[in-house]
Design brief:
The chain is α/β, with parallel strands linked by helices. The chain has one domain (about 5-250): TIM Barrel, CATH 3.20.20.140. About 40% of the residues lie in helices and about 15% in strands. The chain is built from ten helices and eight strands. Strands 1-2-3-4-5-6-7-8 form an eight-stranded parallel beta sheet. Helix 4 (about 75-80) packs across helix 5 and helix 9 (about 220-235) packs across helix 10 (about 235-250).
């Protein structure tokens, strides 16, 4: 049985100092691959270095929606930086109104830049959305016009949002939040949507799942998300492992055969 962490930040200080140990623990927990996701262009070389050095680590390129004091991306930059076989996605991008004050048009414009880059490269988008669901969907419909696909990562939105996202060609990725006691609405979404539309992730070093909540998260802990998803959907563990792995390969590694679970 092989599983994949579809979203992590192993270049962050909490994890990067123990990459060899991290990779060993991934192997011990059947985590065959991890996607290290970009949040700032300044840190992208670190991510690409990890992806280049380790065959089971992949990269994305993008700027997080709530990072203000950093280099602003252009479509041309994102297209150029994504021109590497280990860079499999654009993002993370999207909208986050939770911490923003005043005019948020700069976030929406940055989101449009990422969408345009995804259209040009034909690489999927990794979307972060928080307290901005309607605007996220509206901009995808306006700018994407059915030409982009991707994933709604670390899902905490509503069932209608999930269904609308799936209709637009996006997968839904669940993090350790799925295991939290107060996350029944998230579990309800996971229970309802088809397994063909689901991936799993850690978003490490954040959001460690139960029973490690409050500790530093890491890709090997994605196994706990898998186990909770299997319980919620009342499906065998190996079936959920195989399906979520296949979904990752179809979205990010089209043309690569997914290994059997």
């Amino acid at each position: 049985m092989k599983i994949i962490d579809s979203h992590c930040h192993i270049n962050f200080p909490e994890l990067v100092g123990d990459i060899d140990g991290l990779l060993k623990r991934m192997e011990e927990n059947d985590v065959s691959k991890a996607l290290c996701v970009s949040v700032e262009l300044e840190k992208f070389p670190e991510i690409l270095d990890l992806a280049t050095r380790y065959p089971n680590i992949f990269a994305s390129v993008g700027v997080h929606p709530d990072h203000q004091n950093c280099e602003e991306p252009t479509v041309e930059q994102l297209v150029t930086l994504s021109n590497h076989p280990k860079v499999v996605a654009i993002g993370e991008t999207g909208l986050d109104y939770f911490r923003s004050e005043g005019d948020t048009e700069w976030q929406r414009e940055r989101f449009r830049v990422h969408i345009d880059a995804a259209k040009k490269t034909q690489k999927p988008l990794i979307i972060h959305t928080r307290e901005a669901g309607n605007d996220t969907l509206d901009i995808l419909r306006e700018r994407g016009r059915g030409e982009v696909r991707g994933v709604m990562h670390c899902f905490t939105e509503t069932l209608p949002f999930a269904l609308a996202s799936i209709e637009l060609g996006f997968l839904i990725s669940f993090s350790g939040i799925l295991t939290f006691k107060n996350a029944e609405e998230v579990r309800s979404v996971a229970r309802t949507i088809p397994i063909e539309s689901i991936m799993i992730e850690t978003d490490s070093p954040y959001l460690a799942p139960m029973p490690h909540r409050g500790k530093t998260n890491e890709p090997s802990y994605v196994r706990f998300v898998l186990e909770e998803l299997a319980r919620v959907k009342d499906l065998p563990l190996d079936v959920v492992a195989q399906k979520t792995t296949e979904n990752f390969h179809k979205l990010f590694l089209t043309g690569h055969a997914a290994p059997s679970a």
